[in-house]
Every structure is written in C-alpha cells, then in structure tokens.
Design goal:
The structure is a homotrimer.
Chain A lengths: L14 H18 L3 E2 L7 E6 L4 H13 L3 E6 L4 H4 L4 H11 L2 E6 L4 H6 L6 E6 L5 H18 L7 E5 L6 H10 L6 E5 L8 H9 L3 E5 L11 E4 L9 H8 L9 H7 L5 E3 L25 H6 L1 H12 L5 H4 L2 E2 L14
Helix pairs in contact in A: 1-6, 1-12, 2-12, 6-7, 6-12
Amino acid sequence: MSQRQHLLTVDSLNRERVDHLLRVATRMEPIAQRRQVTRVLEGAVLGNLFFEASTRTRVSFNAAFCRLGGSVCDTTGFTFSSMAKGESLYDTSRVMSGYCDAIVMRHPDQGSVAEFAAATNVPVINGGDGPGEHPSQALLDIYTIDKEFQRLGKSLGGAHILLTGDLKYGRTVHSLIKLLSLYGPLRITLVSPPGLEMPSQLVDLVTSRGHHVEQRNSLASDFSDLDVVYATRIQKERFTDEMNESFQGLSNDFMVNRDFLDQRCSEHTIVMHPLPRDSRPGANDLNVDLNGDPRLAIFRQTDNGIPMRMAIFATLLEVDELVEKEMRPVRWFVPAQTGTLDR
Amino acid sequence: MSQRQHLLTVDSLNRERVDHLLRVATRMEPIAQRRQVTRVLEGAVLGNLFFEASTRTRVSFNAAFCRLGGSVCDTTGFTFSSMAKGESLYDTSRVMSGYCDAIVMRHPDQGSVAEFAAATNVPVINGGDGPGEHPSQALLDIYTIDKEFQRLGKSLGGAHILLTGDLKYGRTVHSLIKLLSLYGPLRITLVSPPGLEMPSQLVDLVTSRGHHVEQRNSLASDFSDLDVVYATRIQKERFTDEMNESFQGLSNDFMVNRDFLDQRCSEHTIVMHPLPRDSRPGANDLNVDLNGDPRLAIFRQTDNGIPMRMAIFATLLEVDELVEKEMRPVRWFVPAQTGTLDR
Amino acid sequence: MSQRQHLLTVDSLNRERVDHLLRVATRMEPIAQRRQVTRVLEGAVLGNLFFEASTRTRVSFNAAFCRLGGSVCDTTGFTFSSMAKGESLYDTSRVMSGYCDAIVMRHPDQGSVAEFAAATNVPVINGGDGPGEHPSQALLDIYTIDKEFQRLGKSLGGAHILLTGDLKYGRTVHSLIKLLSLYGPLRITLVSPPGLEMPSQLVDLVTSRGHHVEQRNSLASDFSDLDVVYATRIQKERFTDEMNESFQGLSNDFMVNRDFLDQRCSEHTIVMHPLPRDSRPGANDLNVDLNGDPRLAIFRQTDNGIPMRMAIFATLLEVDELVEKEMRPVRWFVPAQTGTLDR
C-alpha cells in the first residue's frame, strides 16, 4: 500500500500535499465554526485508539470525525486488554481494520504507529508516537500561521519565526520546522537553554533548503520584526545536574510573557504554543499574563485543530470535494464567540 | 456572558424558567419513550467531561444528547492527562469549547464547574461538583413529582412532601427543596437523625417563601396525607462516634420500607430516591421490599432524566421549539414496557 | 418476558433461529464491507456495558450498531461507580433500560448477564460472562464456516472439523460445538493435552445428536480430509504440576503451524481461532508462520463479527427486513482490500 494512504510522519508531506490540506481545511471552516453541518461520512466508523492518555488530541480527532457525519469508537488506556495477553500489533491492526474505516492511533513507543499501519489498508493517522511524530499538530500549526498571516496581510515569504523553549526533545518543533522549510524563504531564530538546542541535522536540513537560521541562548535581544513566537515548555526533569545549575541564572532569559512581547516584539507578533501549557507558578512555560492579549493565538491555534483534522480525514477518505457540495445551515444556537475574548 | 447560557446551579432558576423546562420535557416524552425520533442536533457535539466517575449520570446525558441527533465525546477519569501536567481549568475550558457545542462537566471540587464555565461562551451544564450542585437531578425530581401528580389528579398547591435521610450532606435534597419552594404553598416535613438535619438557612429560605416546614427525628408518626416521600441514604461514614452511638437505637426510625408505606402512609403516596440506593443488607437506605409496588416511583424518576436532560440541552441550544416540528416515528422494536413491571 | 428477546446463551438457539441469523448476516454484508450504508436505527441508543475490559469485542459491537445508524454509550471498567456503592444488578439494569434501546453486557461473573437481563424488557446481549457464555462469538464462528464452505463449494453435511487446544476451559469451543451440533451430521475430532479434554456431557450431547466424535491427545495423525481446524490457546497457567510435567514432551503434538497444515492437512483446510492469539515466542498458540497463507481464516473470521452482530441487533430490534430496503451507496474511499493480503 502507498504511504499516501496514511498520515504517519511529516516527512511524507511535500509542498503540494501540505498546500492541498491547507486548502481543504479552509473549506472546512464553515463547519468547524458551526455555521454549517455536513453528513458526507454518514455510516463511517473511526477507531480512535489511544494507548496513551491525551484528552485534547483524542477529543479533537473525535469531534472532527463527528462534524463530517461519522461515528467514533474511542479506546483509551495504556494497554489494550488483548495486547496484554500477547497479541501482536499486526493482529490488533488487522482486527481493527475490519471494524473501522479510518484509525487514529497514539502510542508511547516510537515507530509503533507505523508498525500498526503496515498491517492494514485502512487509512491510519499517527496521533503521536512517543518521542516520534505527531503530524496533525504540525499541520494545524502551519495552518494557524497561514491563517493569521492572511488576517494580518502578511505572507510566509520572508517571515521571521522564533522557536523557543526545549528544542531538543520537543517533537512538535521538530515536525513544525520541517513543514516550515517547505515554504519561505524564512528567517528562523532558535532560542533554547544550553543543552536543549535543536538537533543539528534539523538545522542543516532547513539551512540546505535556503532558509536563514540563527541560534541563541537568550531572548534578550531585539525582535521588533518578529512575526511569530512559538513557545514550548522547558521541563526541568530533562536537565542534568550541570544544566540545572547553569539554568538558575538563565531562566528569565526564556520567559515568553507580556513584558517580552511589549518590550522586544511588535504589536503584530503572534504567540503560539502546542498546549497544554503549565500554568503553575514557577513553571518555565508561556506566561498566563498574556491571557486576553489579541497577540496570544494559542486558542485560535487549538480551534484550528478541528478544520485541519477534518481536512486530513476528508482527504484520506476522499470526500474533500464532496463536502463543499453538501453543507446545510446549523439550526442550533451558536454563541457569537464560541470561546472567550481570547480568540 | 449571561448565566442564562449555562446551567450551573438551581439558584439561577426562577419559576418561569423551571416551568419552561417542565413544558419542554413534556414535549420530549414521545422521543424519550421511543415512539418518535428527531435529528435537530445533527452535527452538534457534546463534550461529556466526567472528572469523577458517575456512570448513570454520564450515560443519561449522553443518551439524551444522542436522542436529539447529536454526537457525544465522553471523557472519564479522575484527572485529565493535560490537567495533571499543570493545565489550568481556564485553558481546558477554552480548548474544549473550540471542539464542542455544549459541555457537561462533573468534578469532585465545588466551584470548579463554575470556574470552567467562566472561560467559555459554550453552554456548560453542571453534572455535579462534589458537595456543590447537581441541578439536572433536582429538575428531573420536580418533573417527576409534577408528572406523578398529574397522573394522580393532584397538584403541587397544598401538597405534603417528606424529605428523609441525610439532609445535612445530601446535595440532592438541598437543590430539590429550593426548586420546590418556587411552587406550592407546600407542607414539607424533614426527618433525619440528630446531627444530619437540613441546614437552617435552607429551612429559613423555604419558610420565608410561605411554606410550612416541620422537622422531626423519627418517621414514627401519621403520614396518611403524605403525597411524596423522598428518601436518601444515611451514610454511617458521616457519623461522629457520639452520633453513631445514639443512632444504634434509632435506625428503625428512618426505615422507608413496605411497612412504613402500608402502615403510616396512603395508597397514593409515591416514593422517590436520587439513586443509586445501597441494596446490601444493613444499609440505611430505601428498602428493596418495595420493589414491584406501584408507589415506588424511583425507576420512573430515573427514566425522567432523559426528557429533562433533553429539555435542558434543547433549551440552552435553542432548538426547543424546533423539536416539535421535526419528529418522525421510531422504526425499531420497542417493548411495551421498556423497564420492568416496576414502572 | 420471553427469552427470544435477549441473546444470553447459545442454548436458547434452535436451528431455525441460527439459520435466520445466518441469512440476516449475509444480508448485512454490503454494509459490513462498506459498499452500502443504512440508517434504520437512527435515534436508537446502545448501552455497551463492559464490566471487564475486552477492546475488540466492545469495538465490534459498537461499530456494528453504528453501521445500522444507531448511537452507542460505552462504559468500560471493572466496577461501575454506583455498583461499588452497593447498587444491585437489578437496579442498574432497570436504570440502564430507561436510557438505552439495547444493552450489550460483559461481566467477569457467570450468570450476571442473565441476572441483569431478568430485570428488563430491553434486549440484552451477553458479550461474555466469565467462564459462562459468549454467544455472538459462536455465531460468528459458524457464520464463518458457512461462508468459507460456500466459497469452497462445500457444505456442512459430512464436514470434518477439528477443535484443538484447551477444550476444558475454553468457553468458545463449548458454545461452538453446541451450534455445530444443530447442523451436519459432522465428523468432529477433539485434540487436547491430557487433563484439558472437552467436558464429557458436551461430547455426549453432540454424539446423541448423531455426530461422530473422536478424541485424541495429539495432532500427529492424518488430517488430509480435514475441512476446518479451530485452534485455541493452551494456557499453561491452567496446568497442575503433574500436567505441566507430562506436557513438556507433548507440546509439539498440539502445534498448529505451517508444517502441520502442509504435511497433515489439505490445501482446502481452513484455520480458525477466536483471537486474540498469543504471538510471543513459546506461547502454545496458533503459529504466526501461517500469516499470509490463504487457509488462515482468522481475520476473515473477526471481520465476520460485524455482519453477525449487525444481524443480532437487527433481529432483536426487528429491523432485519427493513435494512434491505434502506441501503444507499457509501461515498467515501474504501480500499479494495480493507485488511491485509491475509483476507
């Protein structure tokens, strides 16, 4: 079977395929924003298999499939009962594809989703395989940047994008930088504590594609031309003793908060984050003092998970053209702002 | 956003709003009793978020939303994975409202559902927040009383209602007595073991609204004019040592069983209970010897959860008028008695 | 209420009823194979109550109900919250039947599903009650044999069927042999390690119905006329010390693998298994070296769970005639082979 049929890694995505998904996601907006409904997947069944808990991702895929008219069988938990009895991923995959028309799988072990997908012709979407891939997140991220830029009259060509936080272990930023490298040319600034830098092969890849990459160990510089700051959490559990010591004096150098935005960036710099963010005091994560600031795009970003995941399902199941012809108006009450003023 | 948009507490309900919900619930009966189906919420998604296990309540909300044609994303478990990572209720709420058209939330901490609701414009229904509120239960209770009274040719004006069991900690009876106080005038008798009496501010509230309230410490009196006995479980775990001792000789004074009904009440006294009831021998709960007695209304009461929760969803999502115009007959087999002879 | 209304045990099934289910399952194939969709159960709600984890069975029932157009409320976990508080199965059953139109229940305790069913008129399907029954498995097994035989131009009359593995504790083979005994006459060979033989009352029952039964303690004989081998796992945890010792030298005598098929059986012998199978090295289970062999019918068998479970729901809910009149073509992409080449 062809890799086209699954969505396992961003590496399988070229510019044309990403462009297509961005276009289809835009087409899904009237449904995602609950102005229209469609039933194109009426009768279809999604197997939403979460071998690892991840409520937001699970609900997002579930809701996206429902919005297309399909039904969802959820499974949550660290082990499947039958796999605990020695069933192979091959058998599980083959059995599930007899029940479902598409499968989303999240699993703590890198490579397991690909192993699962190898045993079936039913489209499989990688919902995150441990330190591996989480392609739908990277797709909704680039969709968000594209949408925000359209709103602001900007374009990806020549944009300046800052990725900051834990760039070594954060799979989100790894996948995102690969997708970004299909566009541009871009100016990409990478800011992380010493020891948590972006892997050099990824920096080399992006540079080889003609982008300008700059790496720093502090946010204390001028970002007045910055278009996007993409923040991720710095988990101190990742630190060696040595790193811990050197980080003591540095932690303020990685704070994405209102001061940083007001003093170093511009009024058009948007702030993104893969969520969840740690809102506890002392967490080295995106500060809650930005709540309510229109530059904070994190909730628009998570909202965008619905049209992008709808686009992924619709494309893999080949109803992406059909949807447009089969929409009808929503009949229930939808608040003017489905979220808070933080939209 | 307005409180009208959520259902967080019975305190936000006035007589007009309760009357409306009772009317809409009645309108839902053909669907709840499976003579008709409707699809008015086709395409809508409910987030059914149970941070605390409660199978019956979760399934009841789930089924009610499905009967209106919507889809449901269930989440069960004591912690959400992302909240365990330090995510605030504010962030969780905002994210979920991007996925769902309505949210039911149950949470062990009082006030948490209101905190969650404050971050979203999507209608939020409190499915129970620990010792706090559980408004849909009180609404289905008053709907049951109203329906039973109609069947028996009675009216709420002048009715005699007995609340018994643990009246101190039972949130169900607190919410119910508030709703009852909007009707009447009523005679309300409160019977509980010493130390588990109804909080005095609630007694004062009800009295100030013109109802006659009487408090006792035993069921050993004449209840021949009683219309409703609403029983709740006495959990001995609530007892101090002192209370435990004094309760030894008293426990028979709080037994709602066939003897009590036959000897002290009338053939038209109906028996209600919020369920679940503890059927184990020695439990201080509604006796199973009433099973099969037509006065036992507890299963009619739980059945009524469906039309009432449909009414809540339909009202908050503003399809309460539409439903009536869009019903069509059920096409599958429905047993004459969907339940047992205990209907 | 009549036993006809529930599906609790294969003992309640006569030849006519099984024939009917086989016919209805065949009628469901276009939907199960995703060439057609139907909405006959639109508005209906299934309570899918798993008191014991069993992902494949749960998802199979769930998907089957969805394919008929219904909605599903899943419940998983070893205890229901309310049953942990002392609620009786009677109360739980009665409450759930107020919410749902049909109930599937799996429970670790034998007899518990029947107890549950006794309290309701809503159709209840036993999804496995510990060492007791799992009738839908036996039905999909006989449906598989029937379907494979049709493909091969064979008939059940005079067929030779081998059941092997743990025939003492395996509830699957107990139920299957009862259903098989309604057909035939058959030649049934039973091969198990000493101490794990088929219970003699079952052998007597089958013999009394005119079938030829032969019991052996090794697969080392000529099976060149064999039509079906139905393998089950031998769980060494079942063994006494004495059995363990005697099994050491025997384990190869119970190996269903490519060698056994190639050397002792024929090219038309099909291999079945209830799944899951233990694929770990050293497990005494159906060997993975048969993967890809067209005689391996285990994945066609699990696929057959969908049309058979659809047939069970459709029959109990009396829409089995209606379905045929209300199908329309699927509009999404369905791979030519929904599974692997192992179909």
